[in-house]
Amino acid sequence: MEFMKELKKHPITFLLVGINVVVFLVNGILQDALRSYGVLTVYHVLLEKEYWRIVTACFLHGNFMHLFNNMVTLLFLGMFLEERVGKQPVLWAYLCAGIGGNIVSLIYKLGNGIKAGSLGASGAIFGLDGLLLAKVLLGDRGVRQIPLPRVLFMVFLSVYSGFSSPGIDNAAHIGGLLFGFLVGVGNHFWLVYRQRRH
């Protein structure tokens, strides 16, 4: 019963977590076939024109711990935001940050001659950090009680963690953070505009 209540309150978060978990399980059953056709690389996207990889890479993970760490963060941050800023901003921030972060990653890889592929939901999850930061900065009603320094420190820790660990696609993280922030700003001014019309 408690699970069903949480599911009704936070459908977007549970949907996103569910998609990531199902993709991970199916990829395992298919012996890494999804990863082969979904990982983000400059060669496959720009030369082979496999543009779907910009999206699919957001839902693929290298191993169980990679998935677990991302899903725990997504679950807690997503539920928190969905309750306070709404379902649509969380969905749009995740998708726009995931895709936007991967585009930034491609540009960075291309500019620095990086051939290695990347995958994972962390760029999209950074978008939720960006969404929260925008909402707190702009003083949205649902998050007014959250101190800005605490959010800035959380974002700093997330970014620092990426730069201090090897093999992390930090371009996707920074890009995701930026796109999530822009979604938050856009959503804020859309709500202001809608309120003024009424």
Structure commentary:
The structure is a single chain. By secondary structure, the chain is mainly α. It has a single domain, classed as Up-down Bundle (Rhomboid-like fold), CATH 1.20.1540.10. The chain has ten helices and no strands. It has helices at residues 2-9, 11-29, 33-38, 42-47, 53-56, 64-85, 87-112, 122-137, 148-163, 170-197. α6 packs across α7. The radius of gyration is 17 Å and the shape is globular. It starts with a helix and ends with a helix. The relative contact order is 0.14. The model has no long low-confidence stretch (mean pLDDT 93).
Keywords:
single chain, 198 residues, mainly alpha, Rhomboid-like fold, 10 helices, globular
Topology overview:
Layout: H1 2-9, H2 11-29, H3 33-38, H4 42-47, H5 53-56, H6 64-85, H7 87-112, H8 122-137, H9 148-163, H10 170-197
Helix pairs in contact: 2-6, 2-7, 6-7, 6-8, 7-8, 7-10, 8-9, 8-10
TL;DR?
With 198 residues, this protein is an all-alpha fold. The chain has 10 helices and no strands. The chain has a single domain (2-197), classed as Up-down Bundle (Rhomboid-like fold).
Helical region count? 10
Per DSSP E runs of 2 or more residues, the count of β-strands stands at 0
Q: Encode the helix/strand succession as letters.
A: HHHHHHHHHH
Query: Whole-Å distance between the termini?
Result: 38 Å
CATH architecture: Up-down Bundle
Work out the radius of gyration.
17 Å
- Biggest β-sheet: count, sense, barrel? none
What is the average of the pLDDT values? Answer: 93
CATH level-1 class = Mainly Alpha
- CATH homology superfamily name: Rhomboid-like
Portion of residues within helices: over 70%
Number of domains: 1
Coarse morphology: globular
